Amino acid sequence: REGRLVHNQIITNVIDSNHDLSTKIIIFYSKIGDSDADRKVFDTMPKNSVVSWTAMISGYTQNGFYENSLLVFSDMHPAGVKANHFTYGSALRATSLRCLDRGLQIQGYVHKERFGENLVVKSALLDLHSKCGNMEDAYYLFETMSIRDIVSWNAMINGYIVQGFADDSFRVFCSMMREGSSPERVDAKSVLRMSARSGGLMKVNQIHKFIIQLGFQCDNPLIGSLIDAYAKSGSIGSAHYLYRNMSNKDIVSCTAQSSGCASVGNYDIDALDLFKEISQIHMGIDGVLLCSMLNICANIASLSLGRQMHAIALKCHSICDMAMSNALIDMYAKCGEIDEARRVFDEMGEKNVITWTSLIAGYGKHGYWHEAVSLYEKMEFEGLKPTDVKFLSLLF
């Protein structure tokens, strides 16, 4: 609001808006996400320099208008303005989420203008190739960099994670640590998730050591990710130890603990005590935590605790989303309350494959074969394709 008032004062008092001032106004509107306003300022400037052109390209890229960013970049050369390394960096980031072919064209300009060794440009090229899944070229660029910044490390780590290369992402993460680069916490969380998914308990232990070395052991979101990674790697004891020794437990760590226990099927870790603790510290309970607790209730067949969770869900979330409704159906079905499961099913507006599977499995488990087959036929009529789980439930 204050920035717009300043701009209005400039216009009202007919202050001579010089090039630098106009460029700063463009940057301001880009930062607050008003791309129409910064374009108007840009179009009214009598002469645009590489700085103002780059500000427009960067602004469009930051706000997700990648096509507009590339159009401005295309207009720049015919206007007689030569791009600099910041221009190329912004344009390459606009292509990294669009198309590799366009990015390779800009890469050709980069080499022609001899910006290929610039750190900003090279990091942007690395980001382009990694986001497009072209990890071989990304790794080649990475290896040829004499200096690496946090952007280039991130690009390699996240590129490998997106492509599912857990070992490679972990290897690059460890190399970054050995070279003395301090990782962003989001990178450690991403590598933890990938390591846990691939069952790499040794990797999780190694990252835990790095977290301690960096002094991040009081970072609750990061410790929450570590708890989740230990649990999913099968080390429930380590997850439980970390959780119990946290000085300030929050919704992230509680969710990680409950989700981790639910994911590995170890339900003897005092699920009821965990719920009581959450209630006692008056912590805001979100949908993810409720779904995890309902999952635990289903697998220990605790109907009383499940009903409490349902009551909290209705109190905290007046309208249950699909994930929570599915969890409720599964809980009631596994606890033998098939009528309650059917009631939740009937009250749902939108249903997915999991919704139908949970109720069909519940009917099958409790001997309601006629209802199970009838529901299956109705599901087919709705146009949903059956899965192996559905066929197993029906055969049962």
From TrEMBL:
Record key words, sorted: Repeat
Keyword Repeat: yes
Organism: Cephalotus follicularis (Albany pitcher plant)
Keyword Repeat on entry: yes
UniProt PPR repeat ranges: 49-83, 149-183, 321-351, 352-386
Name of protein: PPR domain-containing protein/PPR_1 domain-containing protein/PPR_2 domain-containing protein
Listed GO biological process terms: RNA modification
Entry GO MF terms: RNA binding
PROSITE patterns xrefs: PPR (PS51375)
